[in-house]
Amino acid sequence: MMEAKQPEYNLRAIYVRSSVMSMDDGFDPTIGGQPLTGQFRSHLSSYTFRELIIPLPDGTQQKIRSYEFTTSFSFRYQTPQTDDKGEIEMKTAASIGVDFVSSYERVSTSEASNEELEGFGKTAALVHVWPYFREYCSTAMQKMNLPATLIPLLEVKPLPATTKKIVRKNTKAGIGEGTSPATQRKTTPKKIKEK
Questions:
Q1: Residue 170 domain-assigned?
Q2: Cα atoms in the 13 Å half-sphere on the side-chain side of 10
Q3: Is residue 183 part of a domain?
Q4: Structural contact between residues 115 and 35, judged by C-beta atoms closer than 8 angstroms
Q5: Which of 1, 105, 109, 134 is the most exposed place for a label (fewest CB within 10 A)?
């Protein structure tokens, strides 16, 4: 019987680093039936390494090798407006932005390469913070009196066989895009490593 591979990272915490909500002065959220298009996107903003020294009750100290990944999310409602020339253009009516930090303890004593950290941040870390983004948007929309758009679940699926050949050096699988009738996702497929 094969033993399960020990994960390299243990999740320590997920928290909001920064957030912003704004609404255009000309948009009134109390008027129903307005044509709105919801768009959202996400990307890995940064990752950092920290060594934490934690004092224990017995007087000793514990060293934790921590990696923190900051993932930026944004959502906006756009509405069509007629400009001075009579042409219709899309204008942002309301927007929500939030940066989530996911903090992990690295179990392995080996150093992680930038390629490994970026790959982890764009895959596993994204999967971990995605539910927090969904909940954050739902709550923010209620507070802003905006119509509720449910951010879709993040669907993980393999890349097509033709794509696998092209990216074989870096990865063998990917995260697909989520879609919903009320939203349009502006991201590229994320890549993950097969074990």
A1: no
A2: 7
A3: no
A4: no
A5: 1
